[in-house]
Amino acid sequence: MSRLIVVSNRVNPPGGAGEETVGGLAMALAAALREYSGLWFGWSGQTTEKFDGKLSMQTVDGVTSAVVDLEEIDLEEYYNGYANKTLWPLFHYRTDLAAYDRVYGEGYSRVNKRFAETLAPLIQPDDLIWVHDYHLIPLGRELRALGIRNRIGFFLHVPWPAHQVFTTLPGHGLLVQAMFDYDLVGFQTAEYCQAFEEYVLAEAGGSQPQPGRLKAYGRSVKVGAFPIGLDAAEFAQMLTSPKARRMRDLMSAATVFRHLVVGVDRLDYSKGLEERFLGFERYLIDNPDMRREVLMLQIAPVSRESVEAYQEIRARLDALSGRINGEFSDIDWNPFRYVNKNYRRDELAGIYGAARVGLVTPLRDGMNLVAKEFVAAQNPHDPGVLILSRFAGAARQMSQALLVNPNSPEEIGDALKRAISMDKTERIRRWSALFENVQREDVTAWRDAFVGALAGVKWPQAALAS
Predict the structure, then answer these.
(1) Higher pLDDT residue, 441 or 256?
(2) Domains in the chain with CATH codes
(3) Which of 69, 268, 365, 442 is an active site residue?
(4) Torsions phi, psi of 389, nearest 5?
(5) Bridge pairing between strands 213-216 and 219-225
(6) 157 catalytic per annotation
(7) Active site includes 365?
(8) What is the pLDDT averaged over residues 281-291?
(9) Nearest partner of 161 among 131, 198, 205, 213, judged by Cα
(10) Which of 82, 75, 71, 85 is CA-nearest to residue 105?
(11) What's the predicted TM-score (pTM) here?
(12) Which listed residue (135, 157, 163, 259) is catalytic?
């Protein structure tokens, strides 16, 4: 079996069930790498005065990692700049927030080149290389320039926008051209894959000689949808841990005789938190008899605090949560708890298990593993109800959730009313279908589908033939 090399912006191998919350990318990659004698390469999260390409290697929980430090200017231009101020808002349809600065693009190109130069000496002839997410789109091109002819795949964890949106990016053609240096490009859903195909056909003068293959820029690339999943078996074990049970008991006691509505999201404008708060407020307005019967808990750890857009949304959410509590609270009851704090995954599992409703309403999301974790944490005999944005990638797999337009406070309020009043028979029926999907299309299925497709690409690398 070929060795697998995973490349991502940050390397964050988990340390077991007691870890603090990490992103879906980190959880999924760690689960995948445990099955391979491979390597996880990327940025350490630390900065240095001068980039020297020095690697730090370690093995944690069965995952071997190799990390490199970046300079402060790299952090500002590549990560805070092009990745988080340009590509992230663009891919989430927030062109109004996207910042286009030439130095950001220069930093993005520079770091991808540095990553390639540092990684190349570690690559063995038959290694499979799996590059992840929007931070590293040009990495395949840089590796090819260094003579790497291995099979290289790229997977995008965020949405790919409609080509009319993507063309607002200066130099958009160069970024797409770089994706043709990969053998396989994967997306979360068929919708995102189709949007990429439409760009290539409409904007790049490309062709589609057969389903799942595109030609453009004198090259050919295989494309497909590979929806990411949970490490379902590991999560099931986590539910029985002492911390998960304690948190479930604590939340059950804190909400006795009340229905707990829970949301868990990184604090980000793509997550629809303002709209969600307004939806809960609409529920309280429309259902005065239920006000003392519900409690909403929103956990939103702060992220990217140096980016102005995130500072602004945090201020708006602070004001909005205060307004809701000020308007509806009584001397012995508050309807809303808003917490900007990280919780461990086992603690979150316990919180999910105590909730009657999971409220997952991003304005746009690549997949959203919180929705799947909520389903996996439920009591099969008395499960809660998932309310899910139709604009999350997970909605394509989880049609038995209550699907809503996250831009509509009325739809969110109506869905809350339906979820809280739903009888047990319907809750079990919906949950059973959702849980079956979570188990079937788990992280192992995702890993095997992508790596199998990459390993099956004609080799030497057909995409280089012009």
Answers:
(1) 441
(2) 4-229+444-464 (3.40.50.2000), 233-440 (3.40.50.2000)
(3) 365
(4) -65, 135
(5) antiparallel
(6) yes
(7) yes
(8) 96
(9) 198
(10) 82
(11) 0.93
(12) 157
